[in-house]
Known about the structure:
This protein has 106 residues and is an alpha+beta fold. The protein has one domain. Helix content is 25%, strand content 26%. The protein contains three helices and eight strands. It has helices at residues 45-53, 55-59, 93-105, and strands at 18-19, 24-25, 31-35, 38-42, 60-62, 69-71, 76-79, 87-90. It has a two-stranded antiparallel ribbon with strand order 1-2. It has a two-stranded antiparallel sheet with strand order 3-4. The radius of gyration is 14 Å and the shape is globular. The structure holds zinc ion (ZN). Zinc ion (ZN) binds at residues 19, 21-22, 42-44, 47.
Amino acid sequence: MPTENSHCTAGQFPNEQVCMCNDRLQYHESSKVMHDNGVFYICGSRCHQHLINNFREIAFVTDAFSGKTISKSDAIIGLKEKNQPVLVYFENIKNFKNYYAVKASK
Ligand SMILES: [Zn+2]
């Protein structure tokens, strides 16, 4: 039985290495910012400004498995494809795992 402990899950990586503004993996540490009671990770001041100016469009995303709208600040982040720096977001670890299980079975 898998536990709900979301840390150290294969395929998941630390939020500190993503930019939620352009949904890409960064190859350096990103900045953590608080906005509207959520924590967001962005790569720099330009993206921070973009996040503030376009908060509704950037902060919310559809869960790549369920299609439900979720806030990036609460989401579990994964990679859309292996070896590509494009991010996908999940509401919970169950959706995260299901997404990759479906991919693996194809
Ligand atoms: Zn950025």
